Amino acid sequence: MGQVTWDVDDRPMTLAARLYVLGMRLMRDKEAFEGEERTLEKARDRQRSGNRPPTVWTRRRCRVSSRTSHDMTVWTVGPRRAGATSRIVYLHGGGYVHPLTVDYWRLVRSLASAGSEVVVPAYPLAPEATVDDVLPLLEGLVADVATAGPTVLMGDSAGGALVLVLARRMLELPDAEVTGVVALCPWLDATLDEAGVRGLEATDPMLAESGLRAAGRWWAGERDPADPVVSPVNGSLDGLPPVDVLIGDRDILRPAVDDLAARAEHADVSLHVHEVSAMFHVWMTRLLPEATRTRRLLAEIVGARA
User: Fold this and answer.
1) What pTM was computed for the model?
2) pLDDT of 83 strictly over 90
3) CATH number for the domain that contains residue 23
């Protein structure tokens, strides 16, 4: 039987976070995933702008390098003055259709400043690329990193789903040392079929189910979106290293976490869910007091798993 623990940070939302959410609504952030046509238009526009490289502040605070590996641009960000005490492969989110943004580098910089070497690939995106195109590239990269030493897989949203899939694949490689999986607001079910999704959409300032479902279909390619390779909530958890999931209760991806926890209770896995009340999708990448607290927590989790 699995070991499942669940803690809830129920501190009220800070004024800064309330104002931030108001700004998200005024800027209509949800438009990026409202309807298939609009989702594709927004995705094409952001893909034309390309992946944002590590920011100037990240380069000043951390040691940064880049290379091409497995047909992807890969950045490595680590402590500037001391040796790294842990290694992370970080996979960004964005519904499989949006490239890296500057917000991700805030999180990566925090992890690197706490002592981690963070490997960040810019993987190909849907609709041109599908899971069957991209997964072999990421498998190769993760295998390279994890055979060099203990590695934590971390990702947000779509990346949170990918790290669970990749952790399963790494079980087939005896030399790959994946010692932990950290999924931040993971998109566990590409179909969004959970009963609570529709009720949460009104409180979610960022995600809309119609566009996300379309993005999930594009990513699935010839597969059914419910396939465990696309929707890891349907996959086996047996034998995975410890899994930490962080989720807010104003996120339409929240209901699938209940399903993951239910499956984990009957699997050979340790799952720890960290829920933060009143938080929205991938809040830990933003410039907010709640995000700062969460980034400190992530450094502690990595330290325990490395």
Assistant:
1) 0.97
2) no
3) 3.40.50.1820
DSSP string, the chain: --EEEEEEE-PPPPHHHHHHHHHHHHTTGGGGGSSHHHHHHHHHHHHHH-PPPPPHHHHHHEEEEEEEETTEEEEEEEESSS--SEEEEEE--STTT----HHHHHHHHHHHHTTEEEEEEE---TTTS-HHHHHHHHHHHHHHHHHSS-EEEEEETHHHHHHHHHHHHHTT-TT--EEEEEEES----TT---TTHHHHHTT-SS--HHHHHHHHHHHHTTS-TTSTTT-GGGS--TTPPPEEEEEETT-TTHHHHHHHHHHHTTSS-EEEEEEETT--TTGGGSSSHHHHHHHHHHHHHHHHH-
| Tens-digit pLDDT profile for residues 237-292 | 999 999 999 999 999 999 999 999 999 999 999 999 999 999 999 999 999 999 99
> How many structural domains is the chain composed of?
1
Q: Which residues form the domain of 187?
A: 3-305
